[in-house]
Specification:
The complex is a heterodimer of chains A (277) and B (349). By secondary structure, chain A is of the alpha/beta class. Chain A is 37% helix and 22% strand. Chain A is built from 10 helices and 10 strands. A 6-stranded mixed beta sheet of chain A has the order 6-7-8-3-9-10, sandwiched between helices. In chain A, strands 2-1-4-5 form a 4-stranded antiparallel beta sheet, covered by helices on one side. Chain B has helices at residues 46-53, 81-87, 104-114, 119-132, 137-140, 150-162, 180-196, 208-211, 232-235, 239-244, 251-261, 273-288, 311-326, 332-348; strands spanning 3-12, 20-30, 35-39, 61-66, 69-71, 88-91, 168-172, 200-204, 217-222, 225-231. Chain B has 349 residues and is an alpha/beta fold. Chain B has 14 helices and 10 strands. Chain B is 42% helix and 18% strand. Classes of the chains: A alpha/beta (277), B alpha/beta (349). Chain A binds chain B through residues 40-43, 89, 143-144, 167, 170-171, 173-176, 200, 202, 236-237, 239-242, 244-245, 247-248, 251-252, 254-257, 266-267, 269-270, 273-274, 276-277, and chain B through 41-43, 94, 149-151, 176-182, 206-207, 209, 246, 248, 251, 254-255, 258-259, 262-264, 273, 276-277, 280-281, 283-284, 287, 290, 292-293, 296-302, 304, 308.
Chain lengths: 277, 349
Amino acid sequence: MAVQLDRVTYSYNVSDAYRVDALKDISLHIEEGTFVALVGHNGSGKSTLAKLLNGLLLPTSGEVKIFGNSTLDPDKIYDIRKSVGMVFQNPDNQMIASIVEDDIAFGPENLGIEREEIVRRVEWALSKVGMLEYRKLTPFKMSGGQKQRLAIAGVLAILPKILVLDESTAMLDPKGRSEVLKVAHELNRQEGITVIHITHFMEEALNADRLIVLDSGKIVFDDKPEEVFKHYEELKEVKLTVPWETQLAISLKRVGIDIGEGIVKDEELTDRLCRLL
Amino acid sequence: MPIVVKKLSFTYSAKTPYERKALNNINLQINEGDFLGIIGHTGSGKSTFIQHINGLIKPQEGEIEIFDIKLTPQKRPKVNLRALRSQVGMVFQYPEYQLFADTVEKDVAFGPKNLGLSAEEVSSRVKEAIEMVGLDYEAVKDRAPFELSGGQKRRVAIAGIIAMRPKMLILDEPTAGLDPFGKEQILNLIKYLKTHCSPTIVVISHDIDEITRFANRIVVFNDSRIVYDEPMQQLFKHSIQLQNMGLDIPRAVKIANAMRDRGVDLGDDIVTAEDLMAAIVEKYNEKHGTQIDKNACVFDMYDFSQKWLTSEERAALEGENNLQKTEEEKPEKSGKNKSKTKRSKKSKE
């Protein structure tokens, strides 16, 4: 089991007397090789969950296990951080070197890996995110999408088994978003890396194996995306939307034009509409 | 006429190996009351352009006239930049990153203070601005900005601009990074500000489905030039060209185009979800002999109406509605705000 959360609660101390439970008694198992999309409105606990996965935060109660190792075990924390790579929201905050390949080498250098192996890993990681031709250039003038792909490459160089994207597409333009999403799916398919993609964009969840919806620190849905999107009203209640195409089908059905359930993609919508009209 | 731009060109790092033309012969007129959307991919010149409009970049070639203030490449006469910036308010991307003071009140006061206004004038403008963005003045004024939620922080940042009472507001990606509900709140705020504060609004956005919900006119930047400047309803006749530039087109246009390719023509005037649904209903009636009202379809994807809200959020929303109402019936205002404060305190307990 790649990720195992057993009855995890995490609370922040707002003041001495006031505590807020960001996550409430959550249990969650994720199998290796799964692509998980995690959604929820601001403050629902998504980022807290992400930070618990590599021990940046430790649970107030309960236990987080990564491949069987608990984040509470100080002897295992480095193993855990090697197997869980995290990419954050802001592309500008994640570059440290002025040349692309130095930046990618930073992680493995810190693990004390031999030079030849580092060179191999840098090349491999850059080619995986489609940025090999930029290896000698500076990252600072690149687009947001390119920077985030470099951030992913920097994490890949540590050979993680789990990749956590904590709203890594939020600050990007549509092109950058689709680049990053494509790389994440390729890594999942080709390298078998478990991906946990945290996002506000419902359409980014469409191709995930599992869609988990958080609200007020609890899991309210955990199913295939097309199943979750059938729960239109409940999603609204937790301040989320269904994909645009799903909404269109729902709105048409209300006036008596039924084009069927479970529509989440534009090709499906076009197809059903053409058959009807 | 708020803004007239004539033959504006700009080159970064001119006469160096890094020379790059960012604007190439831009001519544009922005009218009072325009709700203008600017689109274009990253690096197309749109940010360089709006930085000219409030004097962050001095023109290299051409000129800009903004509310009787002239910006030209000449050094003299000196431009009154303070007057310019109080008339054209600029809300940058992620404006909450620019909050710096230790209380909300001090942060919002920074702009008007720098305009050289009296202390009383500053504090009354601060109060007005904070209420205008839908926050409870008494409840937030002494709080540190970083204690607030992401959406609230962004409102505080916008309040700091509103406090200067600009005649025109420019917003760069105002909803970026917010969840669907936070996006709706900011969009509603922008619409509210257009009627109650700044009648001319310019919004830069990558989200075409968002921009088509409010803009009446769209300007498209590509390769440092303006390639289209059209009323919103007309622009997507060029959808093939827009897609070739790497720009998104509205989902409704995409669906209508794909259906036309398969032999189902719904007409040319489709831009929004509502347009698409009305056309579908008409076609359906024609084919199936039904009599469905084509305006009966409601696309409520973005409607987080009261039904979906918690009691605290509903109270906040009612507060906003009251504020809008009390524009006409002033006396009620203070009373309702008080009751709102009480309610939000209660729900916290």
